[in-house]
Automatic annotation (TrEMBL):
<keyword id="KW-0732">Signal</keyword>
<dbReference type="InterPro" id="IPR025366">
    <property type="entry name" value="DUF4270"/>
</dbReference>
<protein>
    <recommendedName>
        <fullName>DUF4270 domain-containing protein</fullName>
    </recommendedName>
</protein>
<dbReference type="Pfam" id="PF14092">
    <property type="entry name" value="DUF4270"/>
</dbReference>
<feature type="signal peptide">
    <location>
        <begin position="1"/>
        <end position="22"/>
    </location>
</feature>
Length: 520
């Protein structure tokens, strides 16, 4: 489910009422009045209230990608991310030929990577994207009989069934058969993948693709499970198949080594079965003869899948979050992706503060919300590059996201790291690459409140893996938080920011309002 988009009516109002927002704009507006070249820009900083909220169980069967591996954060501890996914038939009632013998079974799920230059031998070199940490983890693969339903029986099958990050026990309680693959020291590699298969006429063929999770699974298991089931009802359609073969569980565990976690493109993952079979052909003399040919069959991942997370926050961090002062705010804000934590922001202390701003009759040129990183906690940890703020009460984007996307044209679909920078600036870093501060643009949001076009709602603040995507995920048993951005679920990194109760007033988050005085 996506965050609700602002209506076209509101977008039109934004286009008329707020032409440009930077302090050095050629024109600025307030209401219907146009003021040319404002030069007397002033600044007022307003206090905000901030506190953290733990997210203990979040929906993960609606994600665009999936995390696999173990990430160790110096603040938030160790988290293992595993995947349970259904498989789907690419063609129903497949025919494998006569006297079919399975040669090999290869599971492949692509990593996200960037293609670089070729080496001296002409081989393309790649660098991995979206990898967190460095090192290995224990990886195992096994069949589970836990059934992932498409629709919710408790809702009369009218809505999609939700599965959550804390349901790994249910999957493991239904594991069957032997472990199909196990590697105590699996480490993601940036090497290209060479695939040995067959072309359309059954001749041997070799192709090269980008880096991927690529492992071999037992031949005997899939010979019995798939090849020998040719012509059966189990392979006649995908509903029958998914009930017969309910899915594979890819489990990640720590191995007492430096660990890593990686984002997988599960929708492009597959299990390829390579086999030989006998076929009748006519030779050059016109006689029929039996020849051996090669074939392959593909099972696809991702029709329904769930990411599970295992790990606990350190006791002191968890205590700081659960005991947060929701009325007066906190000294620190704890942000962690995955099954992690977020922040709740209240912009204005009360209605009288809003009314006072309205009475000032200011021209609001720009509004920023700035957060400083508390490096006393971070200890050189890998820091997230972007934060995302949203309307927590209505689970939708705020006006500034829509404005940046539609009117400023700041949306870059090809490169999220270069997208929406007028809405959420990337982390400002010092010469040692340590984080200094984040800045978020709330100009349109505040203008809507002051112009009686929007409500002063609570805002949610999260880490985002991809600021271009605004879909959200359901949260279980978290009180005022019912949904979080799905891209925060796929962001394993964490940070600690100074809150409004921080001792250093200069590091407290403030609403920076740049304005120009107007005359009646």
């Amino acid at each position: 489910m996506n965050f609700k988009r602002l209506t076209s009516k509101i977008a039109a109002l934004l286009a008329v009422s707020f032409v440009l927002v930077a302090c050095d704009d050629e024109f600025s507006t307030v209401g219907g009045e146009i003021i040319e070249n404002p030069t007397d820009v002033e600044l007022q900083k307003l206090e905000v209230t901030t506190y953290s909220k733990k997210i203990n169980s979040v929906q993960t069967n609606n994600l665009s990608d999936y995390l696999l591996g173990v990430y160790s954060d110096p603040v938030y501890g160790e988290t293992a991310a595993s995947i349970f996914s259904q498989l789907s038939l690419t063609t129903t009632n497949p025919g494998f030929g006569d006297n079919t013998q399975l040669d090999s079974v290869v599971l492949t799920i692509p990593f996200y990577s960037t293609e670089g230059e070729s080496d001296e031998e002409g081989n393309i070199e790649y660098s991995l994207d979206s990898i967190f940490g460095e090192g290995s983890f224990k990886l195992s693969v096994q069949e589970s009989r836990y059934f992932l339903a498409d629709f919710d029986p408790d809702a009369d099958f009218q809505s999609r069934q939700k599965y959550y990050s804390d349901q790994q026990d249910l999957i493991e309680q239904n594991l069957v058969g032997d472990v199909l693959y196990e590697n105590d020291n699996f480490e993601p590699s940036s090497e290209a993948i060479v695939n040995y298969g067959y072309d359309e006429v059954g001749e041997a063929d070799t192709t090269t693709t980008g880096p991927a999770l690529r492992i071999k699974l037992p031949v005997d298991y899939f010979q019995q499970k798939i090849i020998n089931k040719e012509g059966s009802s189990e392979l006649s359609n995908n509903n029958n198949f998914r009930d017969y073969f309910r899915g594979l569980f890819l489990k990640a565990e720590a191995n007492n080594d430096a660990s890593s976690q990686i984002l997988l493109n599960l929708g492009k993952g597959d299990v390829n079965l390579y086999y030989t079979y006998e076929a009748e052909e006519t030779n050059d003399d016109g006689d029929a003869e039996t020849v051996e040919k090669g074939g392959s069959y593909q099972l696809k991942f991702g029709s329904n899948a769930v990411n599970t997370f295992e790990g606990e926050f350190p006791a002191d961090v968890l205590q700081a979050i659960t005991a947060a002062d929701t009325e007066n705010g906190e000294e620190n804000i704890f942000l962690k992706g995955g099954e992690g934590s977020m922040a709740i922001i209240e912009l204005f202390e009360n209605e009288s503060e809003i009314e006072e701003l309205k009475e000032n009759n200011w021209l609001i040129n720009e509004v920023n919300l700035q957060f400083y990183v508390n490096q006393d906690f971070m200890a050189g940890a890998q820091e997230p590059d972007r934060l995302y703020v949203y309307d927590l009460e209505n689970n939708r984007i705020i006006a500034d996201y829509s404005f940046a996307e539609q009117f400023i044209g700041d949306f870059n679909p090809e490169d999220p790291s270069e997208s929406m920078k007028t809405f959420s600036k990337p982390l400002e870093r010092d010469e040692n690459e340590n984080g200094i501060k984040y800045s978020l643009n709330l100009t349109q949001h505040v203008n809507q409140i002051l112009n009686n076009e929007g409500e002063n709602v609570k805002l949610g603040l999260v880490i985002t893996q991809n600021i271009n995507q605004t879909a959200n995920s359901a949260v279980r048993d978290s009180g005022e938080v019912s949904r979080v951005p799905a891209m925060s679920v796929l962001a394993p990194l964490g940070t600690v920011l100074y809150g409004n109760a921080a001792e250093d007033e200069e590091k407290q988050p403030k609403l920076w309002i740049y304005y120009t005085r107007t005359t009646e």
